[in-house]
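Can't paste images in this forum, so I'm doing it all in text. The chain is below; anyone willing to post the predicted structure tokens underneath?
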Amino acid sequence: MAFTLYKPTTPGRRHAGVSGWKTEVTKRTPEKSLLTIRKRTGGRNNQGKITTRHRGGGAKRMVRALDIFQDKLDVPGTVLGIEYDPNRTAYLALLQYPDGEKRYIIAPVGLKPGAQVISATKRVEVITGNRMPLKDIPVGMAVHALEIQPGRGGITVRSAGSSATIMAVEGDMAQVKMPSGEIRAIPGHARASLGQVSNHDHSNVRLGKAGRVILKGFRPTVRGKAMNPVDHPHGGGEGNQPIGMKHPKTPWGKPALGVKTRKAGRYSDAFILKRRPKKTDK
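Text version of the structure:
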């Protein structure tokens, strides 16, 4: 995939890097029948109070109806085109089935217009975009849009450039290495799509200027240490000072940055065969 760095004609251009989506996107206009309007809240609840900070503004977006279940089983769909989606990092593929129905799926790397993909309940041809149960996928294969529980839909491994790997299949369970490095046991009847998620150069994009951040719907953020003590635990002091405590905190006094948020004793802990490596282990 192409990645563009422009000549530094302006301060914003000097530091910006743009994804070469024009070389991969083949369909510029979305399918109207699959678009819905999403009301924007600006981070406010039904009382008008800000519950999520730093949200607001941004370019208007229409929501694409993504088929996460792909429950039109054993019926091949033809790829009409690859589209850009402003609501996610990956591209979308528009499928049309023999009965005329159209659906969006996550586009994997290498999927081209005119190709046929199928979501099956048994082993099918091992080609990019096909979807089948984990127990029928060859070991070592890269997959995406992974189901954690059969029938729940592809809820994980959907961001740009990500993929999971089938490590082994033992009995009714498959061992899958997640993008984080965690190895997890997943029921063999859960399904996944073959291939790596498209737009793998997304991590190289550099916004370059504040205006592009605003267009994404993010408002400016003020550092806690630049505030007064009444406004933030990090605030106060003369000049530029450290936060003055062992660990950073949120504006409401709770630990922040690197704190584990996963609840202990979850039912799914038994299915984690190997935890993801710590940052110091990489």
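The two ends are 27 Å apart (CA to CA). The chain has two domains: 3-202, 222-282.
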